[in-house]
Amino acid sequence: MKALILNSGLGHRMGVLTSEHPKCMTEISSKETILSRQLRLIAGAGIEEVVMTTGYFDDVLVKYCESLDLPLHVTFVNNPLYDKTNYIYSIYCAKDILDDDIILMHGDLVFENGVFDAVVANPDSCMTVSSTLPLPEKDFKAVVRDGRIRSIGIQFFDDAVAAQPLYRLNREDWKVWLDEIVRFCAGDEKRCYAENAFNAVSDRCRMVPLDVADRLCAEIDTPEDLETVSAQVRELASRKVYMCFSTDYLHSGHIAIIRKAERLGRLTIGVLSDEAVASYRRFPMMPFRERKELMGSISGVAGVVEQKTLSYADNLRRLKPDIVVHGDDWRDGFQKPIREEVVRVLAEYGGRLVEFPYSRDARYEEMDKRRRAELAMPDFRRGRLRKLLGMKGLVTAIEAHSGITGLIAENTTVLQEGKTFQFDAMWLSSLCDSTAKGKPDTELVDMTSRFRTLDDIMEVTTKPIIFDGDTGGQAEHFIYTVRSLERMGVSMVIIEDKTGHKMNSLFGTEVPQQQENVEAFCAKIAAGTRARKTSDFMICARIESLILEKGQEDALLRARAYVAAGADAIMIHSRKKDPSEIFDFVRAFRREDPATPLVVVPTAFNSVTEDEFKALGVNVVIYANQLTRSGFPAMQNAARCILEHHRAQECDSLCMPIKEIINLIPED
Question: Whole-structure pTM over 0.90, yes or no?
Answer without folding.
Answer: no
